[in-house]
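Side project, low priority. Logging it here so it doesn't get lost.
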Amino acid sequence: MATVEQQVLSTTEQLNLSSPLKVGDVELRTRNIMSAMTRNRSLPVNVPNDANVEYYTQRAEGGAGLIVTEGVLVSPQGTTWPHAPGLWSKEQTEGWKRVTSSVHEAGGKIFAQLWHVGRIAHNDMPEQKKSGKPVPGPSPLAARGGEGHYARYGVPKEDGHSIPAPLNDPRAVIEEFKVAGANAKEAGFDGVEIHSANGYLINQFLDNTSNRRTDEWGGSPENRARFGLEVARALVDIWGPGRVGVKISPAGGYNDMGMTLEDTLSTYNYYIKELLALDIAYITIGRYRENTDVEYDGKKRATPHDVLEAYGPLFKHAEARTTTKLFINGGLNPAEANELIGSGKIDAAVF
């Protein structure tokens, strides 16, 4: 039987946002992907409710090819989004079942974006206290820029993000991702996306300005990528490669991320090549955006570069031998997205 892509290619010369796409094991009705957008509506205590069901059902009815959920916490964390949903408990899993069932009834497909914020948290936030653990990170280096973010929850407004406690054994957090991944499967999702972008925990391990470790989890690009790759392998074991995606943001900036261009290119070329070797469903690459590039001490934090030019060829190279699809996110409009899809530079656009 012909795939949806083959059926479309037989009737039209140029693909666009409205063209179907097979991503791993999942058939999408369009190449218009709904980006993960953090919300604060899962009351009480990180459990999806009627508001979540309505929100995602509306997006499925609107025709999104694939919905990627807001960041779904893999464990209790002292984030600035205390009512973000989680996936570590049975109650949360049951709440998500209502969401996925409704999305599927509307003809949609939905992936859960699995999220650990790492050092972008505060030790005095209620959920961090309940966890019984300090805010974690690769190294004891606080992210700049968090002052006032926690004030509405009773934390002194002059406080920023907490100095993280270095993870003695990152495998403990990999286990949290595994539990959340298994719960996502139980909840009826079509797959999972690993959030390794935007300055959160996996990104913190990748970046040598937040990861100063000297053990197997730090130092070289290979060691700094180890944590994210082990998370990916763990979720591939649960889901199979065709239902796992990964989001990255090589240009950095947001949440105090960014390396030299040389370090950025060497790190992300290695990370992407290793993810392609797993033959996962897709990789979403976030483009540099000036409006999320923060300034510290009079200097912009990000490392601007053309991510499509830098990393796009990795997906097409003969040595890759991969079916992994390339998605691009950040500052797109429909006209540009159609041009990039039609020219074969990307497979889908994330809005």
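Brief comment: The first helix runs from residue 4 to 9.
Revisit when time allows.
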